[in-house]
């Protein structure tokens, strides 16, 4: 592009003669599938396979540890949908198409930095949206990713004119808006609006526009995610401008400021990891890392941790309960795991650790009743330290299981340091550990229980069941349960070393 292009119409014509429209078709078709209630695996794979390079990249990302922690070898897109999930594969396709499509024409630093910022903002916004309306997570992600598409398209396809603009913007005292109007005859925001209309992005375009005025919760999530990523890119995580966004985030998603900060930091770490999989360029280097951030530590709350338990039963009977079916939320579970990993490295207070644990297993893994039973009263009994799920709050006052006498599931799990699934016919002899005293306390039926160990100190056991609905515990839930129990022990061990 040696000739100077000037004005909105000229730029739209220029950009629409580039390779951008082909990329836009893929994005549009993937978004259409997101909005369809009858979208099939075949339709998704058909869209992705139009571009062999895109299909190959989606398979590579689907085989990454981040998307496929079980490391099952995925050779086909249809299998990727089964292992990784329909929505996740679609989002991978969208991300890869946009990131690599834009970078194909130009690897210039301005483009890489903006792409990294846009991707970081999209991850932040999507994770905020999960607190608001999970059905909008993907729309929020894409709207944030596309909120700077005009500027991205310019740096990707403007050739020598991009070089001239970069030089003009680098001049001392340059005012970006004035420079843009002088050099291009149009602003980047005008280009964004024009491209979204041309590409027929519909609701996504409306959401991008609404984010400019924060009109509605989803639009607010887009605005905050984009704003945070921009401030972090400009000044780093510890800057006052970044800290100023904690309270607005906390207010939007309905949590306290400390947990909101953890949410933002964890999402930043997630963006770094995922960017490394979704782009051929090294976008990770353009996202400031939050690994070594100092955390605002709350006062340490006392919690008894002791080495060896001795157990015996007691009796109490739960009242019949009912609860609407709880569904797993994979994104929330991953977020909770990330938070606990963060707390292993930088100690947090006990209540923060346990709240993250409970929410991750209950709302994330979809386990209906979860409780942490700790050793108390000089090792003489199990008592409930915290619990979540209908009817469990009364356990704080009423649950008492002495530590001597007939062996039971609580003592066995702690002594053997093993995660146990009991209550089904296939568990055989282990079911003898479900004593009448245990059944009187928690009811009959399948349960999962795992030891919580801080170094050499035995803290207690983590308990979970699906007693409200009567559904079986799935193996992924049991695996998630064991992992969270392990991380909780590591967090408590780190806390004891402060």
Structural class of the helix and strand makeup?
alpha+beta
Write down the overall mean pLDDT: 83
> How far is the first residue's CA from the last residue's CA?
60 Å
**What's the CATH C level of the largest domain?**
Mainly Alpha
Rg over CA atoms: 26 Å
Number of strands: 6
The CATH homologous superfamily of the largest domain is termed Hypothetical protein af1432
Question: Judging from the principal axes of the Cα atoms, what is the shape?
Answer: elongated
Which residue ranges are poorly predicted, with pLDDT under 50 across at least 5 consecutive positions? 294-323
What is the second-level CATH architecture of the largest domain? Orthogonal Bundle
CATH topology of the largest domain: Hypothetical protein af1432
List the total number of helices: 23
**Main sheet strand line-up:** 3-2-1-6-5-4
The major pleated sheet works out as: 6 strands, antiparallel
- Determine the fraction of residues in helical runs and give it as a percent range: 40-55%
Give the domain tally.
2
| DSSP strand content | 5-15%
Reading the helices and strands in chain order gives: HHHHHHHHHHHHHHHHHHHEEHEHEHEEH
Q: Would you give an account of this structure?
A:
This protein has 23 helices and 6 strands. The protein has 498 residues and is of the alpha+beta class. It folds into 2 domains: 193 residues, Hypothetical protein af1432 (Orthogonal Bundle); 167 residues, Beta-Lactamase (2-Layer Sandwich), CATH 3.30.450. A 6-stranded antiparallel sheet has the order 3-2-1-6-5-4, with helices on both faces. Helix 5 crosses helix 6 and helix 16 packs across helix 17. The termini are far apart.
């Amino acid at each position: 592009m040696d000739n100077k292009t000037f004005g909105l119409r000229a730029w739209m014509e220029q950009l629409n003669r580039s390779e951008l429209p082909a990329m836009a078709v893929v994005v549009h078709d993937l978004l259409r599938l997101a909005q369809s209630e009858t979208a099939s695996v075949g339709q998704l794979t058909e869209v992705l396979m139009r571009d062999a390079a895109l299909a190959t990249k989606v398979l590579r990302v689907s085989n990454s540890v981040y998307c496929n922690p079980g490391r099952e070898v995925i050779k086909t897109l249809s299998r990727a949908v089964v292992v990784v999930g329909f929505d996740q594969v679609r989002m991978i396709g969208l991300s890869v198409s946009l990131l690599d499509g834009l970078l194909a024409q130009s690897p210039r630093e301005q483009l890489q930095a903006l792409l990294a910022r846009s991707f970081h903002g999209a991850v932040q916004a999507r994770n905020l949206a999960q607190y608001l309306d999970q059905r909008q997570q993907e729309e929020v992600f894409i709207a944030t990713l596309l909120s700077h598409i005009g500027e991205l398209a310019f740096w990707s396809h403007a050739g020598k004119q991009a070089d001239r603009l970069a030089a003009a913007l680098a001049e001392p005292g340059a005012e970006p808006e004035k420079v843009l109007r002088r050099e291009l005859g149009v602003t980047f925001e005008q280009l964004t609006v024009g491209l979204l209309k041309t590409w027929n992005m519909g609701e996504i375009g409306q959401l991008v526009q609404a984010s400019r005025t924060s009109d509605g919760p989803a639009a607010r999530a887009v605005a905050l995610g984009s704003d945070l990523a921009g401030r972090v890119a400009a000044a780093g995580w510890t800057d006052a401008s970044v800290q100023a966004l904690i309270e607005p985030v906390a207010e939007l998603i309905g949590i306290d400021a400390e947990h909101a900060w953890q949410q933002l930091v964890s999402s930043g770490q997630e963006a770094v990891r995922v960017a490394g999989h979704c782009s051929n360029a090294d976008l990770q280097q353009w996202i400031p890392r939050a690994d070594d951030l100092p955390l605002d530590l709350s006062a340490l709350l006392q919690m008894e941790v002791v080495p060896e338990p001795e157990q015996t039963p007691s009796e109490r009977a739960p009242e019949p309960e009912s609860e609407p079916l709880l569904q797993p939320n994979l994104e929330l579970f991953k977020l909770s795991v990330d938070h606990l990993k963060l707390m292993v490295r930088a100690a947090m207070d006990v209540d923060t650790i346990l709240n993250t644990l409970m929410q991750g297993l209950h709302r994330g893994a979809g386990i209906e009743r979860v409780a942490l039973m700790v050793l108390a009263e000089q090792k003489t009994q199990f008592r409930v330290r915290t619990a979540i799920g209908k009817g469990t709050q009364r356990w704080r006052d009423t649950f008492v299981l002495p530590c001597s006498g007939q062996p039971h599931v609580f003592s066995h799990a702690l002594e053997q340091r093993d995660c146990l699934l009991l209550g089904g016919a296939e568990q055989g002899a282990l079911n003898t550990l479900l004593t009448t005293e245990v059944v009187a306390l928690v009811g009959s039926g399948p349960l999962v229980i795992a030891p919580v160990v801080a170094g050499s100190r035995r803290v207690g056991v983590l308990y979970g069941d699906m007693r409200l609905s009567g559904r079986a515990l799935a193996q992924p839930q049991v695996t998630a349960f064991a992992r969270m129990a392990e991380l909780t022990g590591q967090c408590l061990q780190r806390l004891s070393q402060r």
